[in-house]
Each structure stands twice: as C-alpha cells, then as structure tokens.
Specification:
Blueprint (H helix, E strand, L loop, with lengths): L6 H6 L3 H11 L7 E7 L5 E6 L10 H19 L14 H22 L9 H17 L41 E2 L5 E2 L2 E6 L21 H9 L1 H16 L5 E7 L5 E7 L5 H9 L3 E3 L16 E3 L4 E3 L10 H6 L9 E3 L5 E6 L4 H11 L15 H15 L46 E3 L8 H16 L9 E5 L10 H26 L15
The protein binds zinc ion (ZN) (2 copies).
One zinc ion binds next to loops.
Length: about 550
C-alpha cells in the first residue's frame, strides 16, 4: 500500500544512514572502525575484523571516548588505594632504541677523543658534536626509553635554580623508594590507608561572577592568565617534586586538568597517601615555577616590520638594519643575574583537599569527578552561552596570540629574538603550537597525568584486563596471537567495506555480543538459560 507523501513529509523521515550511526552509538559501537584482514595461518581462511578507532574525544567517536574514560576510571581506582608496591618492569629495548644508543656511542667517542686531543678549535668542532649529542638524546627519549645516557652536564645558566626570596623554605627529607602512604589502625584493629583528593587552582586575575566572566574586564589580568595556563604543567611538576621531598616518599598520583568556568586551568589530583591541610598549604606556598625566557616587554617587530629570513646564513635579520637578530641561546645568555624571570607561576591560595577511604562511595564520586570531562576538548567543557562569556574567551585568545608558547615559538620574532631551531616561514601570531589554539585555552599538555608507579600498569594493560574479563565471562578461549597474520584493508582492495557497511557490521556484532554477555551473566547468577553458542569475537 503506497501513499502519496509530500516533499516535507519525505524530508522529515529519518535518513537511513543516520539511523545506522545512531544505532552504532546506542550499542556502544565505534563510528570509525578500522578494517583489518585476519588470516589464519593454519587454515588459510581470511576474516574481516573491525577494530575501534580509539579516539578520546566524544565529538569524534562517542563510544570510543566513553570506553577510554571508563578505562581511565579503572586505572584511577586501581592505583588510588594500592596496598602493595607496584612492580614496574622495564621492557626489552627494540631495534630502533638499540640503533639510537649505538649512534650515541659513536658520537660520544668522537667527542671525547677530540676533547683529549685538545682539538676544540682545530678540525673538530666539539660544539657541533654537542649539538648532535643533544639531538640523539632527544631521539632516545622519543623512541620510548627513559632517563639519559649520561647525567646532563651542569647547565651554563645556573640562575634558574636561584631560590626566590618571597617563597618560604620547605623542610626536605630524603625520598625513600616507597610509593605507599602510611597505614593507620582503627580502634577495632582494622588497618586502613587514607588517601587524598586535592583540587588546585590558579590565582585570581580579577573578580569574576558566577558565569565565569570578569566583573571588570579591563582590570582582569589576561596576560597573567595566559602565562599561567602555558606553564601550568611545569608548575604541577614542581608541586609533585616538592611534595615528594616534603613527605619523604615517592608520592604517586592520578590527575586530570580541566578549565574552570573562568577558563583558567585547574587540576584534580587523586593522591596515594595523605597529609594535613596545614602541610599542604606549606608545600603550596613554597611551590613556584620560574620562566627564564627573554623579555617580551617591547614589541620590536610588528606586522608591518617583520624580520626577514636570510637563507644563506639561516638567520632572521632586522628588516631596517640588516643585522642578525640574537639567537635563542644568545638571548638567554643576555639575561643577567639581576634580571627577573619573565614569569613566575604559582597556584592560587584556594585549594580543596579531602581524605578518601578506599572503596567508599566518596572515592567513587571523586573518580567520576576526575574523569568527567575527559571526552571533551578543554574549551568545550564550558560552552560560551552569553555575549559576556564569548567576549571573555575572545580576550583570553587575544592574550594568547602573541604570547610565546615555547622556545621554538614564532612569536619570539615579534620581540626581536630568533626562536630556537629557527627556520624560514615563521610568522608571529601564527605559531602552530597547540597552546595558541582556541580549543586548548593556553594549556597544551596532556589531560590526564599519571605517575609511573600509580597502578604499575599502562592504559593498554588495563584494556587487556578488560578483554580477559570479557573472554572469561563469555567462556571463550583466548585467541592465540601466533596463529594469525593481520593486514590493513585499503580502499583499493576487493574486500574493502565502505564506512556505512562497516557500521552495519558493528551494530550486528555489538547486538550479538550484548546478548551473549547477558546470557553469560544470567548463567553465572544461577538462572536457567538455554545453552550459549558463542561464535562471535568479543570486541
Ligand atoms: Zn571509535
Ligand atoms: Zn607558539
């Protein structure tokens, strides 16, 4: 029976493709599955396997983002109240890592031989070797190895360790290699290990209303807000170092960085072990991070007067005089003993700290709080809804536009300094650094900061735990990884599936294994159920 439909009626009907997407999300399936071909080495049979994309932002893939958030919550829960020292074993080095260390050995020998022969100014330039050594050390770190091959040489610029007179001294203890807090015994003989949930904020930049916008925008210190956001991760690092020295053990944490409504970052920290509010206040008062960068007080080259790149020498020149601008190292050397740092970052006076007992409803609430915003970009945590909020965000973005984000930032040219590792095409105000982008609000670091001995497991380990649990619940044998080969399926391949087709498979797979899981659970709880025939792969 067909009925005539008006154009409006036809347009109002849901689009089949959209429904597929909605169903995939509803069933917790990935929206951008990657297609792999899995071949059984013994039988030669090839199968299509759809692997979730694993994106952490809900705007890109809601299901993967939610799975990632759940994993983070599990990681947080497991490490928080650990009552034994986690075993952290180093992996064996892979071929790439070996290669970097071998190259590093060669340069070191060359460098030391030149040194011994006193050839510093002759054919061998040790400064160049040092540059190569620096680059290799970076590669070594990038390839996933920890620590330095050699302890770093004493820095040329010692002032960065100069203590500030306006910060109180902190009593220091030798840090013992334990990661677990103290145990306390209750009256009935039970032992418990209290932990702490801490929230640290940035200082005030001017009074703000409940909507997060300044009462007086002209008096709000946007420059300070921008700089504090840029150096927030370094400040947190300092805090942890101080905490460890103060408490005398290897304090472990799981922390999440988020913006407050006023768009300044704050950090929620689940910490193993505890300290009093007074002690915490003491550590905070002694915690600061000094940024020893060249001064940015005077704009030397604005848009009409930009430095020009000189290809032959690889330098930026003053457009008026043709003089070479000071390099990054020269600019740092020019900072004198009497100069002040460009910026001193500190936490605000306001902080929050509450004791939490393992497994309590309080602990669960804190974990939910910690992981609440992880599926969103920093700037999306608080959507600007009013004109005042939009204007506030705009002013912060303006302040971040010309603020140097790192030694390599293009903005240094504006202040008459060549950025570190200068190259052609740099333009102030157009640095590609994440910190300048609106969605990051000045904070370009990682959203979740987890210390190495938190749970003793990586996120991949927690994922594997979940998989093992699933297979056991479903009563499926673990697949033998040596039995299969895997290859990506590319659009040119005859068995390649377009994304909509993949989504149909995702929906079907999810439905099948949700049913299998429900059956397995019912069976485990002792209810009579029909026999489960599980042939599907657990995702
Ligand atoms: Zn996905
Ligand atoms: Zn930058």
């Amino acid at each position: 029976m067909t009925q005539h439909q008006t154009r409006a009626q036809r347009l109002a009907a849901p689009l089949a493709r959209d429904v597929v997407r909605e169903l995939a999300v509803e069933h917790g399936g990935c929206l951008r599955p990657v297609q792999l071909r899995r071949t059984d080495i013994e039988t030669g049979r090839a199968e299509q396997v759809l692997v979730p994309c694993g994106h952490t932002l809900a705007a890109v893939c809601p299901s993967c983002a939610e799975r990632n958030r759940t994993l983070r919550a599990a990681q947080c829960r497991e490490g928080w109240h650990l009552d034994h020292e986690p075993i952290v074993q180093a992996d064996e080095a892979d071929d790439e890592q070996r290669m970097w260390v071998e190259m590093r050995s060669d340069v070191q020998r060359q460098r030391d031989e030149a040194d011994a022969a006193g050839q510093d100014t002759a054919w061998q330039d040790t400064a160049e070797d040092d540059a190569v050594i620096g680059e290799l050390d970076e590669q070594i770190a990038r390839s996933g190895m920890r620590g330095n091959v050699l302890p770093s040489r004493p820095a040329r610029r010692h002032r960065s360790t100069r203590r500030r007179q306006d910060a109180p001294d902190l009593p220091r203890r030798k840090v013992a290699p334990t990661t677990i807090g103290k145990t306390y015994a209750s009256a009935d003989g039970k032992t418990f290990r209290p932990s702490l949930f801490i929230t640290l904020t940035c200082p005030s930049y001017g009074r703000v209303g409940t909507d997060g916008t300044p009462a007086n925008p002209d008096a709000y210190d946007y420059m300070r807000a921008a700089r504090d956001a840029l150096h927030f991760a370094a400040l947190f690092d300092r805090f942890v170092q101080n905490l460890r020295r103060f408490l005398g053990h290897d304090v472990q944490y799981f922390a999440a960085v988020e913006p407050q409504r006023r768009l300044a970052p704050h950090i929620h920290i689940a910490m193993r072990g505890t300290l009093s509010r007074t002690e915490l206040r003491q550590v905070l008062a002694a915690t600061y991070h000094q940024v020893w960068w060249p001064p940015t007080g005077t704009v030397k080259h604005d848009d009409g007067n930009l430095p020009v790149w000189h290809e032959a020498s690889g330098n930026y020149l003053d457009p008026a005089t043709g003089e070479v601008l000071p390099t990054w190292d020269q600019a740092l050397d020019a900072i004198g003993d009497q100069d002040e740092p460009l910026h001193v970052a500190r936490f605000g006076q306001r902080f929050d700290a509450q004791g939490v007992i393992a497994g309590s409803e309080d602990a669960n609430r804190c974990i939910r709080y910690l992981t609440k915003y992880l599926t969103k970009q920093v700037a999306d945590c608080h959507q600007a809804g009013t004109d005042a909020q939009r204007a506030h965000m705009e002013r912060l973005a303006d302040a971040l536009r010309y603020e140097p984000c790192s030694p390599t930032c293009a903005n240094w040219l504006r202040y008459g300094v060549q950025p570190k590792n200068s190259r052609a095409g740099l333009r102030p105000g157009q640095c590609k650094g994440k910190a300048h982008r609106r969605e990051h609000l000045g904070y370009a670091g990682r959203r979740v900061l987890v210390s190495r001995k938190w749970s003793g497991k990586t996120l991949a380990d927690h994922r594997a735990d979940r998989r093992t649990w699933l297979l056991e619940t479903l009563g499926l044998p673990a697949t033998d990884p040596a039995r299969y080969t895997w290859e990506p399926v590319t659009p040119g391949d005859p068995d390649h599936m377009p994304n909509v087709q993949r989504l149909l498979h995702v929906v079907a797979d999810r439905q099948r294994w949700h049913a299998a899981l429900a059956l397995a659970r019912a069976r485990a709880s002792g209810q009579a159920t029909p026999e489960l025939s599980a042939t599907g792969q657990a995702a």
